Amino acid sequence: MKTIKSMLLGAAFAVLSQTGMAAESGFTLETVNPEADRLALQAFYQERFAGVPLEDYVNGIYAIDPPSRKQWDALEEFPPYEFDLEEGEELFNTPFANGKGYADCFENGGIGIRQNYPYWNAEQGSIKTLEQEINECREQNGEQPLKWKKGDVAKISAYMAWTSRGKPFDIKIPENDPRALQAYLDGKKFFYSKRGQLNLSCANCHLQGSRLYIRADLPGPMLGHPTHFPVVRSKWGEIGTLHRRYEGCHRDTRSVPLPPQSDEFRKLEYFQTYMSNGLIVNGPGARK
Amino acid sequence: MRRLTTALCAVAAAVALSGPVAAASQDELIEEGRAVYHDKTRGNCISCHNINDPIANLPGSQGPMMIAMQQRFPDKRKLRAQIWDATVANPLSIMPPIGKHWILSEDEIDAVVEYIYQY
Fold it and tell me: Any idea which fold B24-117 has?
């Protein structure tokens, strides 16, 4: 099993480089190079969808598919997340029973910090996401944690993203701590590994398969995936978090999805967001 | 393994029995293959491969169109093998290993082969 996996990963590497992209780095701690990966990913899409400016990738499938873009522009005229934003702001500013609030838990009072998440926390030896720290803030102040996938946590996260709009993502992989690079590598492996009865990897749909139809579905580019989360998705009819989307896509491979905020999903988010470094925060977003 | 042996026995039995009725049931086999090909809960091949059949609905574009199959696969067994496990030819294929992962039964795969072989 182990060898099959590394074979597949090796093959992934080979196929991607065949498409003429800048060299992608490897799948071991010795060979992996996040910055090379990030530039290779950009090169891959710039070759595949020539003429699409890099900064447009914050708009997902709408960046690369003009017909979907039209429908979306109409949708954005009355952004479906407006009410969630208002509620998010109110929730964010409502003090806990002990009189403290979210602003007390975060740097800069929680304003304009979305671009730094997720990050490697050396003390705890794990990746921390924004939603996770929203709940930790509650628990530290004697409040019940919120459900991970939708509702208040998504609304608060939406408001915090809103206050960070326009700031470029700046995910760091501290060089003095090899565990951080390992977390990145785990996320990368997750993205390229095939899973489920359908034997699909995230890369199958979002790299190889991007802008090719799977019946009526059109997978978008992975570059920029996390920038606009949380999103109001027409299919959900409400706002949801990035991990809710991970769960859905994971299930589409016909495997049992991991729970939101699991270690694996947080590392996946770390990898994906590092790949989007340099792109701006544009959450919350609206999607079909 | 247990499932595999049972399946193999079932296939063997089916082969043994099918001789005399095979010709008569060719149309049925094709109809069955057609259902497998287009049904979302079965093969769902249409989600990735277009085919020139009027019932084709929202065909996908991940894989090549099913056309000139006899020319491209003079050996029908090679066509069947591609469907049974597309990762042999391309380990990274987005096409699910239909037989290897028990997505369709061996009979359903036979049927879908007959169906696409007409195009």
Answer: Cytochrome Bc1 Complex; Chain D, domain 2 (1.10.760)
